[in-house]
């Protein structure tokens, strides 16, 4: 299968490339393809003629989006529209990677794919708008929502490990709950979906839940780092964009269709930390 991957230099794009197997991948970074340019997207898809597009490119600066709504909308919504239109024109299928930020974080229980959305940030709003444009334009699509992602690049795990080399005490938010998710697991889920015709909306996060405080404690435990972690509230760390208090996703549609390949967050984290520690040796 010939697959075009946008956002190829981001965390998920890098992992998608690693797991390509026998697929023929065309990797497009920001400098290779301007997804906000409809003509450029159409020309690229007509030239490449992919069977599928894995659309990882996104405006992911959650706080920055609050003061740059037009920029976030151009990338997350218009970019998705252009990609869906290009796929419709060329007959390609589309994987649109989305986020838990489409929900408001107030539900008392796991979020399933058909729960009502209520994004509270510009980032969440523009990703939801992107989802809707994909649905309206292209029937052969997979919307894949994930959360608390980490992989090859800047992320919470690497930040904690770096801080552990400099500080013996860290303060970490304890009243936001979600699921740390490895790009390895999300990439597996995406390829499993692409092997099927089970089009629709999916959640793809690792199993279980924790707070950022719990996450940090587990990182240091698994890495063998002696760091005192102090729990603090969101109010003590004000940010421009509101964070969901609770955004645990239930991979319900994966289980009901192609099967859920996502591991527990602790198991996925253990693999990642071991690779990180070996990389530094």
Q: Do you know the CATH architecture?
A: 3-Layer(aba) Sandwich
Q: Main beta sheet, described?
A: 6 strands, parallel
Subunit organisation of the chains: single chain
Number of strands: 12
Q: What is the strand arrangement across the widest sheet?
A: 2-1-3-4-5-10
Strand proportion, as a percent range, falls in 15-25%
Mean pLDDT: 96
Number of discrete helical segments: 10
Q: In the CATH hierarchy, what is the class?
A: Alpha Beta
Structural class: alpha/beta
The coarse overall form would be: globular
CATH topology: Rossmann fold
Q: Between the first and last Cα atoms, what is the distance in angstroms?
A: 37 Å
Q: Can you say what the CATH homologous superfamily is?
A: NAD(P)-binding Rossmann-like Domain
- How many individual domains? 1
- List unreliable stretches of 5+ residues: none
Key terms:
281 residues, NADP, globular, two-stranded parallel sheet, single chain, Rossmann fold, six-stranded parallel beta sheet, alpha/beta
Describe this structure in words.
The structure is a single chain. By secondary structure, the protein is α/β, with parallel strands linked by helices. It has a single domain (2-153, 180-207, 247-264), classed as 3-Layer(aba) Sandwich (Rossmann fold). Helix content is 41%, strand content 17%. The chain has 10 helices and 12 strands. It has a 6-stranded parallel β-sheet, with helices on both faces. A two-stranded parallel ribbon has the order 6-9. Strands 7-12 form a two-stranded parallel ribbon. Helix 5 links the parallel strand 4 and strand 5 (141-146). The termini are far apart. Its EC number is 1.1.1.133. Pathway: Carbohydrate biosynthesis; dTDP-L-rhamnose biosynthesis.
């Amino acid at each position: 299968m010939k697959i075009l991957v946008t956002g190829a230099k981001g965390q998920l794009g890098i992992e998608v490339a690693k797991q390509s197997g026998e697929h023929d991948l065309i990797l497009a970074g920001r400098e290779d393809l301007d997804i906000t340019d409809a003509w450029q997207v159409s020309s690229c898809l007509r030239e490449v003629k992919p069977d599928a597009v894995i659309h990882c490119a996104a405006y992911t600066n959650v706080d920055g989006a609050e003061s740059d709504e037009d920029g976030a909308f151009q990338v997350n919504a218009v970019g998705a529209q252009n990609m869906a239109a290009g796929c419709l024109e060329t007959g390609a299928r589309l994987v649109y990677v989305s986020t838990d930020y489409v929900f408001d974080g107030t539900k008392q229980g796991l979020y399933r794919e058909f729960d009502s959305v209520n994004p509270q940030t510009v980032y969440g709003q523009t990703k939801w708008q992107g989802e809707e444009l994909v649905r309206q334009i292209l029937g052969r699509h997979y919307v894949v929502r994930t959360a608390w992602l980490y992989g090859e690049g800047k992320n919470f795990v690497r930040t904690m490990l770096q801080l552990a080399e400099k500080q013996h005490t860290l303060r970490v938010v304890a009243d936001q709950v979600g699921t740390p998710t490895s790009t390895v697991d999300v990439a597996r889920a995406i390829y499993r979906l692409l092997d099927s015709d089970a089009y629709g909306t999916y959640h793809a996060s690792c199993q279980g839940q924790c707070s950022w405080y719990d996450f940090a404690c587990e990182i240091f435990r698994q890495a063998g780092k002696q760091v005192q972690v102090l729990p603090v509230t969101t109010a003590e760390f004000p940010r421009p964009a509101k964070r969901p208090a609770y955004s645990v996703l239930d991979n319900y549609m994966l289980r009901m269709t192609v099967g859920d390949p996502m591991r527990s967050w602790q198991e996925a984290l253990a693999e990642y930390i071991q690779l990180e520690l070996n990389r530094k040796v």
